[in-house]
Every structure is written in C-alpha cells, then in structure tokens.
Design brief:
about 25% helix; 11 strands; two-stranded antiparallel sheet; 2 domains; five-stranded antiparallel β-sheet; single chain
C-alpha cells in the first residue's frame, strides 16, 4: 500500500530506525510512530502511525485531534521534524491557526558562516524589477520557466527555475555547481516555502510567540 515494508508477524508495523541502536549499524525494527499532544506535561491526545517520518504524521494527527479529542488551540507548536511546506500550508490556510514550528535549516541559517557564505543562493542579490539573481561572479540568473513537483501524498510544490547567463571560465564553478562543462548553473526557488520561512522566523522573534515555543522542550520532552 502506502508503506515500503511491513512485519510478517504484525502487518500493521513498519520497519523503522530506532533510537536504541546498540549495534550502531542503523538496524531496522518493526514498530510504530507514536504521536502525543501535550499541555502542561499532561497527555491530551495520542495516536499510532505506521509512517516512520514525523513530517507526514502531523496532518492526520491534527485531523484525529479535531475529530475525537478537542478544538485545536490558536498555536500549534512542534519541533523541526514537522516543518514542511505542506504542514505550514495546512495549519495556516486550512485550519487558520498559527504554526510555531521550526524547519531543518532554521538554526543553521542563524549562524554567521551561513549568512556570509557567498556561494549560498540565499545571500545572492535579487532584483525584483527584472526578476533576476546576481551570483558571486556578477553574472545574472534569469527566470526560465515554472516547475511543479508532486510528492507521494499528492501535495504539489511550485518552483521558479532560473539559469545563469554564462558559467564558462567562472572561478567559483567547481564549488558552485555540479553541472557538466558547457551547462550553466540553475537555481530552483519555491516562493511559497520562502514566504513560510519568513513567517516562522518572524513569529519566533516575537517575545510572546517565542516564549510559547520555548515551553515545548520542558513540556513535551519529559
């Protein structure tokens, strides 16, 4: 069905990588992904999933909470394992709630090394009038076409594809792109994802919402 494995002795269980990996070899064991919603260190709702990734359990878990437990609060708080375009879109647009959820690169983006890396496209100059980016070699990356990618759940992500005008003889080529000689560097930009990241950074920089997010560790983890 929707899974890539199952246990012959428990058909509902999926093989997952467990934290108690005593052999340190990434062994797989048949198990379940347990999701728990808490407040003040009380368990308010729980559910079991055969999907090993937290990212894809958030939406069905929120559905189950709404259908069988309680009305969702204003703020939905979770760690970076739940931060995805689909999850943000569901919480912000469909449920009309605030998402206090980080994403995988959130902490890395705060570091000086990330912000000052000239080869990082996030640091490239962008001209809104001409819809072009300027790379470290002062070449323009112009918009070429739109691209749509559909994942296994049917969710569609929309990208804008840019291409550098000329990468030949570029001193940064080996570090900047894996494109074969004769081909130019391409850049994929997901505008909705970038807007969502701006939203998350803004929410977590506000004192009220950041204090709510900080409670997650002392509430959920114990």
């Amino acid at each position: 069905g929707t899974r890539n494995s199952y246990s012959k002795t428990d058909l509902d269980a999926t093989f997952m990588r467990m934290k108690d990996d005593y052999m340190q070899n990434g062994q797989l064991k048949a198990g379940y992904n347990v999701q728990i919603a808490t407040e003040g260190q009380y368990t308010l709702a729980y559910s079991l999933f055969s999907n090993p990734t937290d990212t894809r359990t958030l939406i069905p878990f929120l559905d189950e909470i709404e259908n069988h437990y309680f009305v969702l609060p204003k703020h939905i708080v979770a760690d970076a394992g739940y931060g995805s375009e689909q999850n943000y879109n569901d919480i912000l647009s469909n449920r009309k709630r605030e998402a206090l959820i980080t994403y995988n690169l959130y902490l890395k983006e705060q570091k000086k090394k990330y912000k000052q890396n000239p080869l990082n496209p996030d640091n490239w100059q962008y001209c809104e009038e001409t819809d072009t980016y300027i790379c470290p070699n002062q070449k323009r990356l112009e918009f070429q076409y739109h691209s749509v990618r559909t994942d296994r759940t049917g969710f569609q992500r929309r990208f804008k594809i840019y291409e550098c005008e000329d990468c030949s003889g570029c001193p940064f080529r080996s570090s900047c792109t894996k494109a074969k000689e004769g081909n130019n560097r391409k850049l994929m930009v997901n505008e909705q994802w970038e807007q969502q990241k701006v939203y998350v950074r803004a929410k977590l920089s506000e004192e009220k919402t950041s204090s709510i997010y900080r409670k997650r560790k002392i509430d959920v983890e114990p």
